[in-house]
Amino acid sequence: MRARASLRDEIYQDILDLLLGGAYQPGEVVNIDALSRTLDVSPTPIREALVELEHTSLVERTARRGYRVASPLSGKQIKDLMEVRTILELQALKRAYPTVDSWIDELTLAHDEHVKAFEYLPRAEKSQEYSAIRHYFEADWRFHTIIFENAGNGYLLKVLEGLAFQMHRLRQTVGHGKSDGADATCEHSKILHALQERNEKASKLAMKSHLNKVLKRSVADS
């Protein structure tokens, strides 16, 4: 049973890499037999992994057609999603700021990792190294997660975790989000610099500006 669960988890991650790496377009049918050949496994663990992925809203099950990649987010859905993120992020930053001395080094390391992942991204895209593309997204998200982890409210963190896959859907909608890496790392740098300077007001303004720019880029590309 452990071996089967391990295989299912591995296939789950492989399919997630394909989704985030752009191997499938929003609304495209996910052919189980083709995936079985690509991943060199039987259809069973693929079906099990797709059931799990359905819970994330990244794939949808349709009558008589099996699974397909989730439809693109509408412009209103993108705006609503980013509105919620802005409310949560600014509140988390406000709550976390008093203890910034204890987590600023971790945030700095996370930013450095995000920059490295971005610099490697062109090579990963060219060679279809999907795990490296996923790593870029995870490094981006980790920067924000650290602030939530230090906000002193576990429910805030759980809400953020619930939004993670919706952000993946947003990336699928706008071409997988890879094109804004230079902007995102630069905007994160401004947030980090303000925190390193212990300028709470500037850090909040930088965070709000970053999220507003993510919204504008996303709506423009959708």
UniProtKB/TrEMBL annotation:
It comes from the Bacteria. SMART domains: FCD, HTH_GNTR. InterPro entries: GntR_C, TF_FadR/GntR_C, Tscrpt_reg_HTH_GntR, WH-like_DNA-bd_sf, WH_DNA-bd_sf. Keywords: DNA-binding, Transcription, Transcription regulation. CDD domains: WHTH_GntR. Coiled coil: none annotated. The keyword RNA-binding does not apply. Residues 5-72 form the HTH gntR-type domain. The keyword Chloroplast does not apply. Gene3D superfamilies: GntR ligand-binding domain-like (1.20.120.530), Winged helix-like DNA-binding domain superfamily/Winged helix DNA-binding domain (1.10.10.10). It holds the Pfam family FCD. PANTHER family: TRANSCRIPTIONAL REGULATOR, GNTR FAMILY, UXU OPERON TRANSCRIPTIONAL REGULATOR. This is GntR family transcriptional regulator.
